[in-house]
Design brief:
The protein is of the alpha+beta class. Helices cover about 15% and strands about 30% of the residues.
Amino acid sequence: MTRPKDAEARRAIAPVICYPNETLPAVPLDLYRAARAGARKVDEALAAPREACAFRVKAGQFFRISSVEGPQVGDLNLWNANDLNERFYSGKSRALHGTHLTTGERMWSSFPYLRPMATIIEDTLEWYGMDGFGGSVHDVIGTRCDPYTGNLLQGSQYHHCCHSNLIRALAEAEGLSLKEAEPLVHDVLNVFMCTGFTRDTGQYFMKASPVRPGDYLEFFAEIDLLGALSACPGGDCSSEHSSDTAACYPLLVEVFEPEAGALGAWQSPPINGYDRSHGMG
């Protein structure tokens, strides 16, 4: 390989942010938190170790995902409860906010809808920030552990990975066959998972999650939601995933309803305003 004479000059060019997000719709965090303060619990679901649960949240309600017994990460899928074609878009959420999500940031939906689905209003692990390895929590860079990659790399047939867990949970919640449910399962928000990319090879890594019992991530539902949460078979992902040997614990989902009028004139966001002509209109 011949190194060009201007190699260092090319490498030294400053980066440009692809999607400056200063013009995103403002998040009324104070309004959401004030409404949450008087909200009452109306439902809950428990994702058992190496399993997933489904739950429903109405627009204007809140939901909290908590560590309840031991350090555990979870894989979260969200759909529009009234149209499963609209689902969480991890790639665009990553492009708009960054590799890891925290307070005041949003989970955005897929094309052609592209609108906020849920807004993070509290994150007890926000203190973690970015560590010396380039790791942080609640990532939108990983996919979900799945049986296909396991079979590709190890020749395994493991059925309690997050992909399969989410399929089963969605199928049961919506009365779908596994074949019908699988195409609707999508890349996740890795709740509590600590991840990053190695500086030398650029490989996706995981490390022991800093989550402890009592930690939680709390959301405001911008639209009617169907959610599925898998308690990852890797436990805190300190050593491996898709495993029956890692210590695993349940994750709790709680749903809260604010008092009537607490959200004032708030309205659920409309779908994206692009005219969908794609230059042919």
